Amino acid sequence: EPEVTQTPSHQVTQMGQEVILRCVPISNHLYFYWYRQILGQKVEFLVSFYNNEISEKSEIFDDQFSVERPDGSNFTLKIRSTKLEDSAMYFCASSNSYSPLHFGNGTRLTVT
Amino acid sequence: KQEVTQIPAALSVPEGENLVLNCSFTDSAIYNLQWFRQDPGKGLTSLLLIQSSQREQTSGRLNASLDKSSGRSTLYIAASQPGDSATYLCAVRRVENYGQNFVFGPGTRLSVLP
Predict the structure, then answer these.
(1) How far, in Å, CA of A91 to CA of A42, rounded?
(2) Fewer CB atoms inside 10 A, N or C side of chain A?
(3) C-alpha angle with apex B76: B83 to B7, nearest 5 degrees?
């Protein structure tokens, strides 16, 4: 069965550094998402992406965040200047219209 | 604003029991509702998706129901096994913005004791 793949599985970075989290969504999916989960808390929506543009974003997704689909397969989340509170699991997901949402295994981001 | 809650927050049962997990949402304007399983430190695995026009979906020992008008869904697990131990999350797909966003509940942490 097709999968959403994310790399790296774990990223450690220093406060103020830029990080790029990478995702390969399922190939025939049209909608792409980033969610995050701070340890012990709910899964929170960050951003959705459709037709090469952001279709919705949450209050969490401020100017330090950006997303890109640089080619036909990858979908990236960039955090420009990481803060301690950005430490979380970041999940990429993809779907088609009203079909099930499929998640990757996540990237654990640790900001020190 | 759509809010999703789940009760109980945690549940511990002996192996073989049938159990029910509950999910409530405040806005009945949803496209669908999806149940997920999350193992510690892992991603979310899709279990069942119920469209807003459906009443229930079944997969193996799992049965999910949806009562959109009352804002409730249940996940029924039959003959529970230790391998079912995980956190179970429900998520609703909002109607606004063409259903781009899922809102998640906090999850129910299930422990099935051998």
Answers:
(1) 12
(2) N
(3) 95
Q: Which amino acid is at A104?
A: G
User: Encoding tokens for residue A34?
Assistant: 């980033």
Distance between CA atoms of residues A110 and A81, nearest Å: 13
- Chain A residues close to B101, C-beta within 8 Å: 45, 48, 56
Burial call A68-88: b when 16+ CB within 10 Å, e when fewer: ebeeeeebebebeebeeebbb
Kindly list the residues of chain A whose beta carbon comes within 8 Å of any beta carbon in chain B. Answer: 31, 33, 35, 41-45, 48, 50, 55-56, 89, 91, 93, 97-106, 108
Closest Cβ–Cβ partner in B43, B45, B100 for A48: B100
Alpha-carbon distance B19 to A66, whole Å?
42
Residue for token pair 């340890």: A39
Q: Are A6 and A23 in contact (CB under 8 A)?
A: yes
pLDDT in tens, chain A (112 residues): 779 999 999 999 999 999 999 999 998 898 999 999 999 899 999 999 988 899 889 999 999 999 999 887 899 999 999 999 999 999 999 998 778 899 999 999 999 9
